[in-house]
Specification:
This protein is an alpha+beta fold and 87 residues long. The protein has one domain. It is 24% helix and 33% strand. It has helices at residues 9-19, 21-30, and strands at 2-6, 43-48, 51-57, 63-68, 81-85. It has a five-stranded antiparallel beta sheet with strand order 4-3-2-1-5, with no helix packed on it. The radius of gyration is 13 Å and the shape is globular. The N and C termini lie close together (7 Å).
Length: 87
């Protein structure tokens, strides 16, 4: 399996704006998040096996895979990094 990640905070900020406050808050509630992400520093997009997820890595190294975002318009075409291959 090949995993790609994109760390472009400008694009991710635009994507979060496109998602909207209501859907963003609802996704946090559905994931039972107690501590909301406070900065843009830990956000990234992860793509694999036909989905693109909006993810956040907390300073404690915990990774929140918040929501599938492949249906939104602000998915970048460039800037993806290949992270790992599992066989």
């Amino acid at each position: 399996m090949i995993i790609y990640r994109n760390f472009d905070t400008k694009i991710i900020r635009e994507l979060i704006i496109e998602i909207g406050r209501h859907k963003y808050e609802q996704a946090l509630q559905n994931m039972q998040v107690r501590q909301k992400p406070l900065s843009m520093k830990g956000w990234y997009l992860e793509a694999r096996d036909g989905y693109v997820k909006l993810c956040y890595r907390y300073p404690s190294r915990y990774i929140l895979m918040l929501m599938n975002v492949e249906r939104f318009n602000n998915i970048p075409a460039n800037g993806w990094e290949r992270i790992k291959v599992e066989r």
